[in-house]
Amino acid sequence: MSTSSSTPEWMRRSSRCTDDHCVIVAKYADAIEVSDSASDGAPLEFPYTSWQTFMASIRRQSPR
What we know:
- Helix content is 22%, strand content 30%.
- The chain contains 1 helix and 4 strands.
- It is globular.
- The N and C termini lie far apart (35 Å).
């Protein structure tokens, strides 16, 4: 799974950035890429199905 040569379907930047230090999430056809705008390191890549499971878990646990 490598997303570095393709264009993301969408990209979101954290709404709580400090001095342009933000978490960035990009959606590709079969993967999610998470990066830190202040880092030169490679982004973390997750299979899309794993990301969906992770997000569903967070939504179940978050207070309403």
